[in-house]
Design a protein that fits this description.
alpha/beta; globular; five-stranded mixed beta sheet
Length: 442
């Protein structure tokens, strides 16, 4: 970064001398950027969280950037709560002391923060605009040509069912050759797994409702369509009248009633460990954890399948939830937005993205990275994820206004275990929207 150094002229000099002095009026100066890094499913993977901070990928990336940019220093902080970080960032921005860079969730999570986020339209290199996907997820209100509020993180996070191949084979099933592609076939498979004495499906819904967010939300979007969901966000339509939402919630609940899901799903916190120990057949998961599963169970014993299709009412078929669900934004109070963007561009550079994929199992947002460059083997889950990424549908929770999304996270586990009906949750969503609109009028 260059800062203007005041040059005081003692006396008027010849024009040529003045121009010469003006040419020397700028010089490099030290720059320190503060950065918030999301501690969940972002730059700090589950395995990395067990390591010292200096061994994290993001810490190593910062060192590489600082080495290439003498005088620049980047200091990172991990907020204690990824969800609350959005409101904390807004409050800090209004107070004028937000970090220069913040790792936040994309879509509707950053749109309400537009007043404290620096639009990047004029700062983003043209090459990045051409070679990165996901710009729609950080463009205000998803409207093409609008203010670009950040960079997508360098991954397309894919959602799917991770499964234990040994268990599936022992149950007389072959998901490699014949994965269940309808909910009826999926139910039949889960029934076989349960009858064999295995826990068919596990999730810690109380901590984060992964089964709904990663899987069941796909059925909602498949049945309803995103245009209708966006209307419900504004009160132009009612969540309570959304048959797709109600159907997805009912099916989500029925999996629990039939005993396919762990009984303590609403309060458990160790389902992932049970999967890694080989005690669970399937688990709703994302790309980040694949490498951990392969280390624990052996790559040859880990598989992935798309969620089954519930119906073909919107034309959305054979897909999954996914996309860059997180982003990196620059605060309006940053004194060095150009340096901040230079760092974000660096993180998304081809060389740096390939470094990132040595640590985490995600899918590139860059369109110029080949399977060979990722060193992927045919038939492995990481290779499958590349196929999944070709036809994903963007996260439903990131498409909801924050009040609705917050209640989805908090209350949907109650629907799973029968303490709340699908209709009651839908009605609560409508109340959230009404409360938002009433508050906006004050």
């Amino acid at each position: 970064m260059k800062s203007v150094v005041k040059v005081f002229l003692i006396m008027a000099l010849a024009a040529s001398v003045a121009l010469s002095l003006a040419g020397c009026a700028k010089k490099s100066g030290p720059v320190t950027l503060q950065m918030w890094v999301n501690g969940r499913d972002s730059y700090i993977g589950p395995d990395e969280q067990k390591k010292p901070q200096e061994e994290w990928y993001i810490s190593q990336a910062i060192k590489r950037f600082e080495a290439k940019n003498p005088g620049v220093k980047i200091e990172i902080t991990v907020p204690p709560d990824a969800a609350e970080a959005h409101q904390t960032f807004k409050a800090a921005g209004l107070a004028g002391n937000a970090p220069d860079i913040a790792n936040l969730w994309s879509g509707q999570f950053i749109f309400p923060l537009k007043d404290v986020i620096q639009p990047l339209n004029t700062l983003i290199p043209k090459d990045d605009l051409a070679k990165l996907s996901g710009w729609d997820t950080v463009t205000l209100d998803f409207k093409q040509g609008g203010p670009i509020l950040g960079y997508p993180t360098p991954d397309n996070q894919m959602c799917f069912f991770l499964y234990n191949k040994k268990i599936i084979k022992d149950c007389g099933l072959d998901f490699d050759k014949d994965p269940p592609r309808t909910t009826a076939a999926f139910d039949a498979a889960l029934a076989k797994i349960k009858a064999k004495g295995y826990l068919a499906l596990a999730s810690d819904e109380g901590g984060f409702p992964a089964y709904y967010i990663y899987i069941a939300a796909y059925w909602w979007k498949q049945l309803t369509g995103i245009d209708q969901i966006l209307k419900e966000n504004t009160g132009a339509a009612k969540f309570a009248d959304d048959k797709g939402l109600l159907a997805s919630l009912q099916y989500y609940h029925e999996a629990y009633v039939k005993g396919y899901v762990n009984k303590d799903a609403a309060t458990s916190s160790n389902s992932w460990n049970k999967f890694l120990e080989g005690k669970v057949a399937l688990m709703p998961q994302v790309s980040t954890v694949v490498s951990d599963a392969e280390k624990a169970l052996g790559a040859e014993n880990v598989g992935a399948i798309l969620p089954p299709d519930m119906a073909n009412t919107t034309g959305l078929m054979n897909r999954t939830i996914g996309g860059p669900g997180q982003c990196l934004v620059v605060s309006k109070n940053s004194k060095h937005p150009d340096v901040a963007v230079k760092f974000l561009s660096f993180l998304n550079s081809k060389a740096e993205v390939l470094e990132f994929y040595k640590v985490q199992s995600k899918v590139p947002v860059r369109n110029d990275i080949s399977v060979a460059e990722l060193n992927l083997k045919a038939g492995t889950v990481p290779a499958q994820l590349l196929d999944f990424s070709k036809s994903y549908t963007y996260w439903v929770d990131n498409s909801l206004v924050q009040s609705v999304s917050n209640d989805l996270y908090k209350l949907v586990p109650l629907v799973m275990v029968g303490k709340m009906t699908p209709a009651q949750l839908a009605e609560q969503f409508d109340k959230d929207v009404a409360a938002d609109q009433a508050s906006a009028k004050k």
